[in-house]
Amino acid sequence: MKSYCLCLFFLASGLFSYSQEKINWINWDQMIQERENDSIKKKVFIDLFTSWCGWCKRMDGTTFSDRTIVNYMNSKYYCVKFDAETKDTIVFNGHQFINSDPSFVKSTNSSRGKSHWFAHSILDGKLSYPSYVILDENLTRLMIYKGFKDTEKLLGILLFFASDQYKYYNNYLNEAWNKSLKNNSQN
Predict the structure, then answer these.
(1) Which CATH architecture has domain 21-178?
(2) CA pseudo-torsion sign 160, 164, 170, 175
(3) Is 129 exposed, middle or buried (0-12, 13-18, 19+ CB in 10 A)?
């Protein structure tokens, strides 16, 4: 009877995890291909991670597993999962990026390697994991976020950029700055 209950438990938990929706993570090349095929371009969300990063795994197990986050990201973004220590070559804006350790690229083992030059470039040399980069529809970087984000914080970020609110916020800041300069010059 005990083994029967255990068997049912594992079967039910397997079905539950199978039925859960997941973020449609793609690699860089797949994102480029999907963009070419889509008539309406979406923004790009890049999750930069490493295999040894505990907070990256926690994001995968919590925030990136939340149904609201999953549905929103899948509908509004190309979701790129980028291993910051990958051996893959990335082409971006006419530049070719490789892993910073040529001996690691040529090795056949799966040991921890050095960081990829794409990670250095897209994060302005400030490597921290997990990190998230949002690109607009033209692949222009909009923002870098670092560290663990709970569902509420990440959803706010996703909404802010997908709805183009960042454009209005920049206009507001520019107007406020110009008004401040004008007021200061009159005094």
Answers:
(1) 3-Layer(aba) Sandwich (3.40)
(2) negative
(3) buried
